[in-house]
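Form P-L/3: holo structure prediction, ligand zinc ion.
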Amino acid sequence: MESKSDYDCSICINTLVFPVKTSCGHLFCMKCMEKYLEQSPIQQCPMCRTKVKLEKLKVDKNVWKEVKDLFGDEIKERRKVVEEEIRKEKNIVKLKVRYGNKYELLKSFKTTKSGYENKHRWTVYVALGDKKVEAGSVIKSVEFKLDDSFGFTDIKKNFGPYEYACNGYGEFSIPIKITWQRWLKMEPATLDHPLKFEGKGSHKSFIVRVDKTLLEEKTGVKY
Ligand SMILES: [Zn+2]
Ligand SMILES: [Zn+2]
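OUTPUT (holo model):
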């Protein structure tokens, strides 16, 4: 690396602290990248949009050593803050929640009275990315709000699989409300999913932070 700015994180515009390098070669502070990916519906590099996986991010030891050698004093305070954050997170499990719609183009379908072809099979869903945990142990219910033209406005699922399938002719947006089990003491998550009728559909995810001890107690799963 050549200049000082090569050691800057493009998210916080500060010198890198605990740097992670993405597969596309971009560098970010570990915490900046974690927060970015947790909030972003799409898991991609903020610089070049290459797909990245939160779980795969590891501190780049070589770059971190270079940063410490060059800017040790300058980053002292921020480093302390991050180390404290890491210590606190030892008892946190980050559960990935996936949502979106699966999709299939039907070969045989019905045509509506007005001539629309109901050839799009879509399934809107909410699921956990982590197979270790049964979704029902953290999710109390999922509500899918459908367009008024469906005649019924809400589909409420109190048990998994948290999904709803239908054949249709046009894309529209589905508001989704996830209510968590009471022990999580979390506000419901409200999302909005625009259906996509192409390829394998459209899929997104976000992270919820759960107390590790409580999660293990409630699910019997060890982390
Ligand atoms: Zn940063
Ligand atoms: Zn990149």
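COMMENT: The chain has a mean pLDDT of 91.
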